[in-house]
What does this fold into?
Amino acid sequence: MRAWQGHKIETKCFYFLQEAFKIMLIKPDQWDNPSSIQTKEECSIKQEDNMVLKITSGYINGFKTKVPNSKLMVLADPSLTESKLDDVRFDKGLWYDWTKMSSL
It folds into this structure.
């Protein structure tokens, strides 16, 4: 599980190589002190979907799998150094209880 991480400028693409993931997306009402109540977009993506998920700038994301050996590839438009400067993280329990995640 990885949550919550966002980028004000960076765009990321996720390619699902093996098994399945649950992804949650939030467009925060503000970055410095976002509300604890946010509208979430939720999706489940499986390897056989053979797709790339593009997360545009301005979103916070979290993802998790319950399936062992799941793998994904992450592609980003800036360099790793530039990405670290645009990295904003929040407490993993802030907007969703990942321990009670429904099955994929």
Q: What stands out?
A: Residues 80-85 form the longest helix (6 residues).
